[in-house]
């Protein structure tokens, strides 16, 4: 479970997140939407402390992240994160990208990690790419490898930060399909996205953010079909126009 | 013809010069790189004081001439530590300290040139900062650092010639002796220029081979 209490984040004197309170239950799939600059990415980056809140608390399974010090690594091992720009390790092969974290953190022995990686590649339909370097892959392939890299740690929570925004349109589907499959396994997922159709279809709950605040939070169907707040309405009318 | 005759006649001086120049270069390279690596870590540190100290050091050293630095160490040793040190020791200290500043900047910029996302991706997987440095950042940074470091080593070999100004019997010094003994101003210089070039060219070729062996997966 993720619990966020009175979270504020400033970059310099810019107030990016304003007094956020949020609770996400195990197995929930959250779609986080809103205009760019509304603080969505900063919010999920606070959930694994890549961004350290200026004030307030983030609890993962009742553990307060701000009190952990170096123990933060242990919590991060349970929270996968997938980035807009993939950030695969360019000097490692696809297989090494996936086995690196389990081996370095002592979670799995090398042979076990490789077995697991091959299994993941198989489900991603990328087994034939195991020995190539990331630069020879397409964007969609890179992003699926990045998801596999996170899943190799057996995370309880997965954070997705606009993972399809940098992809060519024809590659968006293959990545969303993997995420859809993941949602159906009961994974707790927080998905920052501009893919409204995906959010509507896959998310249990959709949260709309604007200007660093959570404006509205509701089931996907309710939020899209019956938005309450004027800002939500405006945003949706703009993005759903076409 | 004259050049070869000069070289044979005065080979003793040139041999000593070669030996001193190579020894000075090699030792300075080791000390300079070691110290430079440490300085770059200080400069990349989260803490303000080590960061400020290394920044001041790097700026001062890079902003003053090598010839002044070498004289400062040589003539300043008595004032600073109360005893004279040999010319060779002074040159070794000055060249190492000088090179360290440049090496520190090369390593720092090499590390900082790696996309921040690499560190974030690795840390998000629960890999520690130290392991991330070792397995993710440094292996990539080396490819940026190496060419620049190679240039710095080439520069270092050439810069050691300043040691002749405080009487260290290096290659440059040998050329001065041969000039005055043979009453020829020009040819002895041609000889040392050739020898310096031989060293630096060999070194840059070796570095080139090493670089290519690293870049196989780009």
Furnish the topology, listing elements before pairings.
The complex is a heterodimer of chains A (about 240) and B (about 220).
Chain A: E1 2-11, E2 14-24, E3 29-33, H1 40-47, E4 55-60, E5 63-64, H2 72-76, E6 79-82, H3 94-104, H4 110-123, H5 139-151, E7 157-161, H6 169-184, E8 188-192, H7 196-202, E9 205-210, E10 213-219, H8 220-225, H9 230-239
Parallel strand pairs in A: 3-8, 3-9, 6-7, 7-8
Antiparallel strand pairs in A: 1-2, 1-4, 4-5, 9-10
Helix pairs in contact in A: 3-4, 3-5, 5-6
Chain B: H1 2-9, H2 11-44, H3 48-62, H4 66-81, H5 87-112, H6 116-124, H7 129-159, H8 171-182, H9 187-214
Helix pairs in contact in B: 1-9, 2-3, 2-5, 2-8, 3-5, 4-5, 5-7, 6-7, 7-9, 8-9
Give a description of the structure.
The complex is a heterodimer of chains A (242) and B (218). By secondary structure, chain A is α/β, with parallel strands linked by helices. Helices cover 37% and strands 25% of the residues of chain A. Chain A contains nine helices and ten strands. In chain A, the strands form two sheets. A six-stranded mixed beta sheet of chain A has the order 6-7-8-3-9-10, sandwiched between helices. A four-stranded antiparallel beta sheet of chain A has the order 2-1-4-5, with helices on one face. In chain A, a hairpin with a 2-residue loop joins strand 9 and strand 10. Chain B is mostly helical. Chain B has a single domain, classed as MetI-like (MetI-like fold, Orthogonal Bundle). Chain B has nine helices and no strands. Chain B is flat. The N and C termini of chain B lie far apart (49 Å). The mean pLDDT of chain B is 92. Chain A binds chain B through residues 48, 50, 70, 73-81, 83, 85, 87-91, 100-101, 104-105, 133, 135, 146, 149-150, 153, and chain B through 115, 117-118, 120-128, 131, 135-136, 139-140, 217-218.
């Amino acid at each position: 479970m993720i619990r966020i209490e009175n979270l504020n984040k400033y970059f310099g004197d810019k107030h990016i997140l304003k007094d956020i309170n949020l609770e996400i239950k195990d197995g929930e799939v959250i779609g986080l939407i809103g205009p760019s600059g509304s603080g969505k990415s900063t919010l999920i980056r606070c959930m694994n402390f890549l961004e350290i809140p200026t004030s307030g608390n983030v609890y993962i399974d009742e553990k307060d992240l701000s009190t952990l010090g170096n123990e933060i690594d242990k919590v991060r091992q349970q929270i996968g994160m997938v980035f807009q720009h993939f950030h695969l390790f360019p000097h490692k092969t696809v297989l090494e990208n996936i086995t690196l974290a389990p081996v370095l953190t002592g979670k799995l022995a090398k042979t076990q990690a490789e077995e697991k990686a091959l299994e993941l590649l198989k489900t991603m339909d990328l087994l034939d790419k195991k020995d190539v370097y990331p630069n020879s892959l397409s964007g969609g392939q890179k992003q699926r490898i990045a998801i596999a890299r996170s899943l190799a740690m057996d995370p309880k929570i997965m954070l997705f930060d606009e993972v399809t925004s940098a992809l060519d349109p024809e590659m968006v589907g293959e990545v969303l399909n993997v995420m859809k499959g993941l949602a159906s396994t009961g994974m707790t997922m927080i998905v920052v996205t501009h893919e409204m159709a995906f959010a509507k279809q896959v998310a249990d709950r959709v949260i709309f953010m604007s200007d660093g605040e959570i404006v509205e939070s509701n089931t996907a169907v309710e939020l899209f079909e019956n938005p309450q707040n004027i800002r939500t309405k405006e945003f949706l009318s703009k993005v759903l126009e076409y | 013809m004259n050049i070869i005759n000069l070289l044979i006649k005065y080979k003793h001086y040139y041999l000593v010069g070669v030996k001193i120049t190579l020894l000075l270069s090699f030792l300075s390279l080791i000390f300079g790189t070691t110290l430079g690596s440490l300085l770059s870590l200080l400069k990349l540190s989260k803490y303000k004081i080590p960061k400020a100290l290394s920044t001041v050091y790097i700026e001062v050293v890079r902003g003053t001439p090598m010839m002044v630095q070498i004289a400062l160490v040589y003539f300043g040793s008595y004032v600073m530590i109360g005893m004279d040190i040999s010319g060779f020791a002074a040159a070794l200290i000055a060249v190492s300290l000088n090179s360290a500043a440049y090496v520190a900047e090369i390593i720092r910029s090499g590390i900082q040139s790696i996309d921040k996302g690499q560190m974030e991706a690795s840390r998000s997987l629960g890999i520690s900062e130290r392991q991330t440095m070792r397995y993710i950042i440094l292996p990539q940074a080396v490819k940026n650092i190496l060419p620049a470091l190679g240039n710095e080593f080439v520069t270092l070999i050439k810069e050691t010639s300043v040691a002749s100004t405080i009487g260290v019997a290096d290659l440059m010094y040998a050329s001065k002796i041969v000039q005055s003994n043979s009453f020829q101003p020009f040819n002895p210089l041609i000889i040392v220029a050739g020898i310096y070039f031989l060293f630096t060219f060999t070194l840059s070729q070796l570095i080139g081979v090493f670089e290519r062996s690293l870049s196989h997966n780009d």
